[in-house]
Design a protein that fits this description.
alpha/beta; D-Maltodextrin-Binding Protein, domain 2; 2 domains; five-stranded mixed beta sheet; 15 helices; 47% helix; globular
């Protein structure tokens, strides 16, 4: 028999359920994605740490991490609004912005570009000018190609003066070992660190881009201009949570590597640990000492802007006031 009191109790239960559902909806996390510059490796550790430690969820974000296909791809897809956030090398970001794609920068994960020219000792190459008529690895869509183009022009060469060998992820090492590649512009805190561990007998010479006159910023945290303008608090929340990830990963390097390799079990912990140790120093600079991890060094970005214009990678310099945003404006 249904009584008035039972009806009241039922009504109370339904009201409580409705309130819980409404409260949950009101506080539902914003679902966003972050496109990596490449397949996951140590440089992406801050994002994985921020997710694992709950920094994103505490900021009201439900973050999906997407593997990348090169910095240029990440800058293009994020800048065009297909994904909310991304990680891309600074050179690819400036180049993409110069093409009219409204990508903007929220932070720098690395204060140095992390790129280096290497040559096998057996090639006899001792200076960049000797790349003429040599077999040079070229990774289409990667920021390394941008630096290669600029480096060649600085030494009076063009892509027509080398013998390009197209490489993809994981294909360049066998080509180097077989002698089919004499030199390549690569990432010293990624491939070169891994090769040193995996192939200790491989003899390489390498020159960092900063030592060759390209002292420019490295991996950047990016979004698109529309999202930044329409949802500034969302952009700031993602930036701040990721920067917390940098801080934690730098101060807890072993745990940070464990977080990465747990999320991406095909990675080798020993290799990623070495890569992260090589990356930690470039998370810092005089600018970060003043403004904290993730700070944007406008002078380095201006140097990059000048270099890309000077070496005809871009036709005109970009407006850095439009490009560089710290997520709080």
């Amino acid at each position: 028999m249904v009584t008035d009191s039972s009806l009241r109790r039922a009504a109370g239960v339904l009201a409580a359920i409705g309130l819980a559902i409404a409260t949950q909806a009101a506080h539902a996390a914003d679902a966003v994605s972050v496109r990596l510059s490449f397949t996951p490796f140590a440089a992406h550790i801050p994002v994985y740490v921020a997710k694992d430690k709950g920094y994103y969820s505490q900021a009201g974000l439900d973050v999906a991490i997407l593997a990348g296909r090169g910095s240029s791809f990440a800058a293009m897809t994020v800048g065009s609004g297909k994904e909310e956030f991304g990680i891309a090398d600074a050179a690819a970001v400036v180049t993409t912005r110069a093409q009219g794609v409204p990508v903007v920068v929220l932070a720098n994960l690395q204060q140095d570009n992390g790129v280096a020219l290497f040559a096998t000792e057996s090639s006899g190459i001792t200076v960049p000018a000797q790349l003429r008529d040599r077999n040079v690895g070229v990774f289409t869509g990667s920021t390394t190609t941008i630096f290669l183009q600029a480096l060649l022009k600085k030494n009076g060469l063009t892509m027509d003066d080398i013998k390009p060998v197209t490489v993809r992820s994981g294909t360049d090492l066998p080509l180097v070992l077989s002698g089919k590649i004499d030199a390549e512009v690569s990432v010293y805190n990624n491939e070169l660190v891994a090769w040193k561990i995996e192939q200790p007998g491989l003899k390489l010479r390498h020159w960092t881009m900063s030592s060759l006159g390209f002292d420019t910023p490295g991996y950047a945290l990016i979004t698109n201009e529309e999202l930044f303008k329409q949802k500034p608090q969302l952009a700031k929340a993602f930036r701040d949570a990721t920067v917390k990830g940098i801080d934690y990963a730098v101060n807890h390097p072993d745990e940070a590597v464990q977080i990465l390799t747990k999320a991406v079990p095909e990675l080798k912990a020993e290799v990623e640990a070495a890569k992260w140790q090589a990356t930690i120093p470039v998370t810092r600079s005089p600018v970060t000492e003043k403004n904290g991890f993730g700070a944007l060094d406008k002078q380095k970005w201006e140097t990059l802007n000048d270099l890309l214009k000077t070496y005809s990678v871009i036709n005109a310099k970009v407006n850095l006031d439009d490009l560089l945003r710290d997520g709080s404006r």
